[in-house]
């Protein structure tokens, strides 16, 4: 990849998105770190901690960190076609974590359209295979969504190894459906996002996930509980992971199609579009 100027990072402030920003800083001079806040997310200002560390580490690069309110946009995406989706997809409409990712990607597209940027990245990886935004089929659909607007969606840490120490939620999940049963073994040997940042001098140790420091680095969200209740206590006892993946894909393909239509309307009409009113 040749040297480019601007890239947008969907930035939580956590280990993975910080590692993604550090990796992409090799090829871009200006890194726009976008942290999104909305109802249900707490302490989004925690993301400042690692954005400042990146600024201090990469003195020749420009890191621009912005915290953007997406509350009205979130309601639009959550409830657009809600009753139709309940009828068609049932409780898949409760896929909070997937819809949250979709909200963030939609806002990132808008940011790129407003500024003429052509590259976006995030810290998505293989650690949470039951979260739609981490599923390869959904990532492929998101890449198609970005490509509709001439934007490349990069996933620089997707194939890095996973840390050996599992966090609390993983322990709950593994009691029902071990991640390793999906071919994604926790604790792969090799480079992890934490190890990468530790060697770079950004983090004080190589695995901070689940620690007090981790909680100070990024926003806190507890809405994932609803998603996990649906997946692990309602859907997965009677279905395979492949069933879940297929049904999730169909639901998000419909959602993404509606969003692409709204984004094209924004691209053409700008301040006269519905999306403009939702972000201003």
Tell me the number of structural domains.
1
Q: Runs with pLDDT <50, length 5+?
A: 166-188
Proper CATH architecture: 3-Layer(aba) Sandwich
Structural class: alpha/beta
According to CATH, the homologous superfamily is HUPs
* Major beta-sheet overview: 5 strands, parallel
Under the CATH scheme, which class? Alpha Beta
Helix coverage percent? 40-55%
* Percent of residues in beta strands: 5-15%
Q: What is the CATH topology descriptor?
A: Rossmann fold
How many DSSP H or I helices?
Answer: 12
What is the tally of beta strands? 7
Spell the H/E element sequence.
EHEEHEHHHEHEHHHEHHH
Estimate the mean pLDDT confidence. Answer: 88
Shape: globular
Strand ordering within the main sheet: 4-2-1-5-6
Terminal Cα separation, in Å? 35 Å
Tell me about this structure:
- With 280 residues, the protein is an alpha/beta fold.
- It has one domain: Rossmann fold, CATH 3.40.50.
- Helices cover 49% and strands 12% of the residues.
- The protein contains twelve helices and seven strands.
- It has helices at residues 15-24, 48-57, 71-79, 82-89, 96-115, 136-147, 168-174, 193-200, 212-217, 224-235, 241-269, 274-279, and strands spanning 4-10, 28-37, 41-42, 62-69, 119-121, 152-154, 220-221.
- The protein starts with a strand and ends with a helix.
How does the SSE layout of this entry go?
Layout: E1 4-10, H1 15-24, E2 28-37, E3 41-42, H2 48-57, E4 62-69, H3 71-79, H4 82-89, H5 96-115, E5 119-121, H6 136-147, E6 152-154, H7 168-174, H8 193-200, H9 212-217, E7 220-221, H10 224-235, H11 241-269, H12 274-279
Parallel strand pairs: 1-2, 1-5, 2-4, 5-6
Antiparallel strand pairs: 3-7
Helix pairs in contact: 1-8, 3-5, 5-11, 6-11
């Amino acid at each position: 990849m040749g040297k480019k100027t601007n890239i947008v990072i969907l930035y939580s402030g956590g280990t993975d998105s910080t590692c993604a920003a550090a990796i992409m800083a090799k090829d871009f001079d200006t890194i726009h770190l976008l942290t999104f806040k909305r109802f249900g997310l707490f302490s989004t200002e925690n993301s400042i901690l690692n954005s400042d560390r990146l600024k201090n580490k990469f003195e020749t690069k420009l890191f621009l960190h912005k915290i953007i309110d997406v509350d009205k946009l979130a309601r639009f995406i959550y409830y657009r076609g809600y009753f139709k989706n309940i009828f068609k997809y049932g409780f898949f409409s409760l896929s909070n974590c997937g819809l949250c990712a979709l909200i963030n990607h939609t806002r990132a597209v808008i940011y790129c359209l407003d500024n003429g940027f052509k590259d976006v990245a995030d810290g998505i990886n293989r650690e949470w295979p039951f979260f739609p935004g981490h599923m390869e089929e959904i990532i492929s659909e998101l890449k198609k969504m970005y490509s509709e607007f001439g934007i490349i969606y990069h996933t620089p840490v997707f194939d890095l190894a996973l840390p050996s120490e599992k966090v609390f939620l993983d322990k709950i999940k593994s009691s029902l459906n071990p991640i390793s049963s999906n071919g994604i073994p926790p604790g792969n040997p090799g480079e992890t996002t934490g190890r990468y940042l530790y060697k770079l001098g950004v983090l004080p140790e190589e695995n901070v996930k689940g620690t007090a420091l981790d909680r100070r680095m990024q926003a806190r969200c507890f809405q994932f509980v609803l998603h996990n209740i649906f997946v692990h206590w309602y859907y997965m006892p009677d279905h395979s992971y492949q069933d879940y993946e297929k049904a999730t894909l169909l639901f998000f393909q419909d959602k993404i199609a509606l969003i692409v239509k709204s984004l094209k309307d924004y691209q053409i009409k700008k301040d006269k579009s519905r999306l403009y009113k939702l972000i201003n």
